[in-house]
Amino acid sequence: MSDDDHEDMTHLRVRIEGFVQAVGFRNHVIEEARRLGLDGWVRNRSDGTVEALVSGETSAVEAFVAACMKGPPGSQVKNVDLFRAEPPEEKGFHRRPSL
To answer: Rounded to two decimals, what is the model's pTM?
Structure first.
């Protein structure tokens, strides 16, 4: 891999606020991430938010974030916070236990 290949990779922790639990949000996120070929995980948090770690090509991560902002039918996304992160240790996109 050349240096250029590494520059087009993005790793983000995503925190989604709003009506995002009990509406199929995690399944929506998992389907999108797998469709886009991304690595990472998603989980519900006890404060009512959904948190995800996502890693992959920048354009695919941007599409993932856009899907998080829209959410599945029945959800109401109020805010999405993005934080730089280290890439996940495992490949694929997984559901993690709630925190």
So the answer is: 0.91
